[in-house]
Amino acid sequence: MTHSPEAPAAIGPYSQAVRAGDTLYLSGQIGLDPRTMQLAEGIDAQIERVFANLEAVARAAGLGLPQTVRMTVYLTDLA
After folding, report:
1. Of the residues 2, 49, 65, 71, which has the fewest C-beta atoms closer than 10 A?
2. Is the Cα dihedral 8, 27, 61, 58 positive or negative?
3. Helix and strand tally (H, E) in the chain?
4. What percent of the chain has pLDDT over 70?
5. What pLDDT score was predicted for residue 6?
6. What is the rounded end-to-end Cα distance, in angstroms, of the chain?
7. What angle do CA 54, 15, 78 make, to 5 degrees?
8. In Å, what is the CA distance from 8 to each residue of 5, 21, 69?
9. Residue spans of beta strands (DSSP E) within the chain
10. Which long-range contacts (CB under 8 A, 24 or more apart) does 37-45 make?
11. 37-75 pLDDT, tens per residue?
């Protein structure tokens, strides 16, 4: 399992990322600021925060987003 304090802690029974051989599987992220645990304000800020969180977790595993092979994005309006 991979963990970065620069991304929000996993809530529930999962981890931020899991390595299987040479592949790193990252869990989904929402636009939470890991320092305040508050949702970023506005969709643009939330998108930037999600990618910053993903980058932090990838970095903790010695990788970065440029090594990404596949990404799936789900957009949901919780309102």
Report:
1. 71
2. negative
3. 1, 2
4. 99
5. 93
6. 33
7. 65
8. 7, 25, 23
9. 17-20, 23-26
10. 37/8
11. 999 999 999 999 999 999 999 999 999 999 999 998 887
Q: How many whole angstroms separate alpha carbon 61 and alpha carbon 6?
A: 13
Q: Which two tokens stand for residue 24?
A: 């790193």
From CA 1, how far away is CA 67, in angstroms rounded?
A: 18
Environment class of 49 (CB within 10 Å of its CB; exposed 0-12, middle 13-18, buried 19+): buried
Tokens 């304090």, located at residue: 5
Residue with tokens 């899991």: 18
Tokens representing 34 are: 């890991």
